[in-house]
Q: What sequence folds into this?
């Protein structure tokens, strides 16, 4: 286990997991979003020591057998992102949202709330919201 005070984002990057971006370092941009036991978290605020015994998923783990996940495919197809810096965090937040059991489809407000911790400076968010809606319809 890495040093107790090391942030999981730093540890991930040291392990070659480059999708975990360094953005704001204060939990506001979502560029470092990973899933901890299925919940989207800002890894810049999460101590690596807290990860012991938990399932940590980064974007690198979403593709299986060389095939992109359903969410990755939807983002690639939609053109919802431009520069790509925020894309890993958005994909992980979307993956967490879609994995939650629900009786009704996600509403636009629920999607916006679910993505509120992920900033994108290149696009308006509507194409991203539309991508999440499309993911849900086709999953």
A:
């Amino acid at each position: 286990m890495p040093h107790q005070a090391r942030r999981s984002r730093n540890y991930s990057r040291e392990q070659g997991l480059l999708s975990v971006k360094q953005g704001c370092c204060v939990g506001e941009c979502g560029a470092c979003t990973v899933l901890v036991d299925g919940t989207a978290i800002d890894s810049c605020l999460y101590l690596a020591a807290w990860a012991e015994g938990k399932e940590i998923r980064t974007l690198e783990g979403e593709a299986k057998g060389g095939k992109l996940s359903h969410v990755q495919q939807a983002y690639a197809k939609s053109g919802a992102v431009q520069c790509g810096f925020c894309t890993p965090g958005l994909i992980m937040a979307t993956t967490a949202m879609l994995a939650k059991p629900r009786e009704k489809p996600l509403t636009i407000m629920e999607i916006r709330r679910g993505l509120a911790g992920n900033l994108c400076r290149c696009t308006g968010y509507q194409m991203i919201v539309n991508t999440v809606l499309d993911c849900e319809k086709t999953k």
Observations:
- The longest helix spans residues 87-99.
- The mean pLDDT is 89.
